[in-house]
Amino acid sequence: MTATPVEAPSTSGPPSPHSAPAVKARSRRRRGRIVAVAFVLPALLLLGALVVYPVLFSAGRSFFDASGTKFVGGDNYTEMFRDPATLKALRNSVIWVVVAPALLTGLGLILAVLVEKIRWATAFKLLLFMPMAVSFLAAGIIFRLAYDEDPDKGVLNAAVVGVHDAFKGTSSYPTAHARDGQGLTRGTDGSYRTTATASPGHTVGLGLVGVAPKDLPKGAEPAYAAAGRTAGARELRGVVYLDFTPGGGGEQGKTDKGESGLPRLKVEAVQDGKAVASATTGADGSFAFKGLDPGATYTVRLPAKNFAPPYEGVSWLGPALVTPAIIGAYLWIWTGFAMVLIGAGLAALPRDALEAARMDGASEWQVFRRITVPLLAPVLTVVFVTLVINVMKVFDLVYIIAPGPVQEDATVLATQMWLVSFGGGNNQGLGSALGMLLLLLVIPAMVFNVRRFRRSQS
């Protein structure tokens, strides 16, 4: 009988917890954790000092009164929703959230698609992205000047006034008026008419003052000769002149030598309250109504539009338009940001899908609407939510662009929080409550963005 050899037990298998390799592995992991903590600790300290502590402090401060010594519970939150200024700030913030991100995302998408079709795409992107390099403070000052109501300062109103005057014209003599007791009476509508009536065959003189010699139209000629012309039997003549003799002298109410005519004025002959004839003064201020009834009498009238104040443009920073005007400045700054992000997503789209659609006969609009936009939906969502978070915190532009009298009409939650706390209100309890409200409104968008980012990375 042959004996079967007994095999020695195998030494392979998992190492003992007390073996040297296991100890070394645990030591390496421990050192790795220590190194990781050492790198993360400064960031955690800064995060705690600059974010966590201020949030916790503001949350606690919101339950105390303005002095910070008396606990008032939820009174600040109740007062916050009773204050008309806070409600207006909340309304304006809603307008910002609804309008600005949607416009920016749409503009960014359109520009990103169009830029792909031009030769100088890089230069165009750089041009649109340049406003991002400008601080909000500088951008606010730029647009405060651009929106100035004075056409001599505000470029937008200069353009509006130029277009208006090109199509509708402007009054010739906005500062002109008649002297009392010199034959002209001012009507309630701003027009001037002769006190006495005149009949054909006569010449009337209409003297005005209030026009500086330097403001006379080019080509204006002396009115003395025109005042001496004789009218025909069926003609009523006259002259409108500046009743002022340079250097002094002359007689009021009479056309003296050296006095200039006032050209381009509309003049009407009025009978029984109705204008029966009209004329425009020439270079020497003369006018003539022809074909009148020789036996009738007429009143000569200078219509009010001759003296209407000049068109001064749009009140961009008035109560009605201040919020849209500030949103316009925000669009100027952030359109390049939206275009570049959406353009990056557009560059990553599968070109075979786009080309296949074109080969199947789809128009460019159909390709854009049914393929490009659906494929870009994740990028568009990220851009939109990021802009929502950004506009919720907008402060600089509103504070700088809106003038003091309309600051309350343009205020948003961030500016209202500052005004209540430090801008004269000196109620940091109420300001802290506004800060917590702003935080609660921003958190959902932040959480949505973080989750979206994590899903895209998985």
Q: Which key features would you list for this structure?
A:
single chain, 458 residues, alpha+beta, MetI-like fold, five-stranded antiparallel sheet, three-stranded mixed sheet
Under CATH at level 1, the class of the domain at 83-159 and 316-426 stands as Mainly Alpha
What's the oligomerization state?
single chain
Main pleated sheet: 5 strands, antiparallel
CATH architecture of the domain at 83-159 and 316-426: Orthogonal Bundle
Label the structural class.
alpha+beta
| SSE pattern, N- to C-terminal | HHHHHHEEEHEEEEEHHHHHHHH
The CATH topology assignment of the domain at 83-159 and 316-426 is MetI-like fold
Percent range for β-strand residues: 5-15%
* The CATH H-level homologous superfamily of the domain at 83-159 and 316-426: MetI-like
Give the overall pLDDT as a whole number: 86
Strand order in the largest sheet: 1-2-8-5-6
User: How many runs of DSSP E, i.e. beta strands?
Assistant: 8
Give the low-pLDDT segments.
none
How many helices does DSSP assign? 15
The amount of helix comes to: 40-55%
What is the overall silhouette?
elongated
- Radius of gyration, in Å, reads 39 Å
Distance between the termini: 66 Å
